[in-house]
Amino acid sequence: MPENCNISTNIATYFCYKTKINFMKNFLMALSATTLIGNVTSAQQVTFEEYDLPNGLHVVLHQDNSAPVVITSVMYHVGAKDEQPDRTGFAHFFEHLLFEGTKNIERGEWFKIVTANGGQNNANTTDDRTYYYEVFPSNNLELAIWMESERLMHPVINQIGVDTQNEVVKEEKRLRVDNQPYGNLIKAVKQNMFKVHPYRWTTIGEMEHLDAATLEEFQAFNKKFYIPNNAVLVVAGQFDKSQAKEWINKYFSAIPKGTPVSRKTYEEKPITESFKATWEDPNIQIPMYVTCYRTPSMKTRDARVLDMISSYLSDGKSSKLYKKLVDEKKMALQVGAFNYSQEDYGTYFIYSMPMGNTSEDAIIGQFDEEITKLQTELISEKDYQKLQNKFENDYVNSNASVEGIANNLATYYLLYGDINLINTEINIYRSITREEIKEVANKYLKPSQRMILDYLPAQEKSQN
Questions:
Q1: Which of 163, 143, 139 is nearest to 151 (CA)?
Q2: Terminus-to-terminus CA distance in the chain, angstroms?
Q3: How far is CA 17 from the centre of its chain?
Q4: Which residues form the Peptidase M16 C-terminal domain (predicted)?
Q5: Which CATH class is domain 275-457?
Q6: Arch. (CATH architecture) of 45-252
Q7: pTM here?
Q8: How does pLDDT run across 5-32, given as a tens digit for each residue?
Q9: What are the distances in angstroms from CA 349 to CA 56, 326, 338?
């Protein structure tokens, strides 16, 4: 995932969904870039127990007694890609709606209960999944388990809640998208890069779709996707396993199994010829030039190689693109590259905001020059070792808090289909060779396989 997520706050939020929101100090200190690989492995081994309830809910338990804190989280396998083209934004809408209240938690009381018991909670949505979690003092584990079971078993989905959250989501869209510089970059890219896959719309969706939806449609969406056999429950932190299992069985076992979710498979035609797209944004004065390439699922080895390529090109001020375009040639105010990989497909971005009158052709020419080097030459041993050090540190940091571990356990189980990747994915990165970097650059980053997006300041309308 990208490290240079500094285009704007909302874009950073969207692309860096794997970045963890920590409500406590890290329990493990991140090791420096010079830490020996062997030491990292032993220090970061994550132990866990997993099992299934009869209703299909997958349960994962991870004990960490370093602090009297416990995280209870539920990840549902439902995101923006599970919506209909004329009803976008439903998954994100439910991220808000399912805090409205339940049969046993009155409307408006959810956050009060959490706060009164020393806890914090939040939720987030992507194209692929929705994630809810609570962070409590460890003596409130039963409360957290009960509340998440209430959200699943007894949600109250009525018109007043829908109307209230509709206004909340509209305000969020105005703040984070419509009135934010470069706020529609994601929309501009997605609607042009995908023609048949639901990735072609944004997670926040279109407000007219939410306005047009009936209460029955919202209730049907909940019934279809918010079921135990479409979710994983993770409990991580300081707790007694036998007691946790007893409470999980007490509160979750009675929830009936839902009809298994049937998903369509969407296959995009390969991009075989470069094409251009344009978007005008009234909130900006400096254009942004973006090249985009379609890439494979985040579950593939190639996606990990592309992660390394993006880091090589633009991670930090010593990276190839930043040093060249910003520091040396003074052609750009900002430049970045990242592989936004998802469950089904990915999109590889290279973007830049030009300095002064630097032309688009000049900017993209510099992009191509660095990519051509990757395609024709092996990166240096020094740069290769720098990449290995960086990904070792990323691995350590991703498991540096109990909340981060809970998120990773849920993600690897639900989206990757291999929960033990929490311990083994770093081995994939370690095994990537300089030769593979060259091969993957040739496979996916060809000029004939990309879109060039001109993200421009809006032209003033004539007063006549």
A1: 143
A2: 47
A3: 3
A4: 213-390
A5: alpha beta
A6: 2-Layer Sandwich (3.30)
A7: 0.90
A8: 334 333 333 333 333 333 233 322 222 3
A9: 38, 18, 5
